[in-house]
Amino acid sequence: MPIPGPDPAPNPTKRYRHPPEFYTNPENSIGYLARIVFRSFSRLLEQGTLTQDVSAGQWRFLRQLWREDGITQRELSERVGMREPTTVVALNGLEKAGFITRRKSTEDRRKTFIHLTPHARALELVLAPMNAEVHEIATRGMTDEEVEVLQRQLRRVIANLADETAKLKFLSDVKA
Question: Does pTM top 0.85 for this prediction?
Answer without folding.
Answer: no
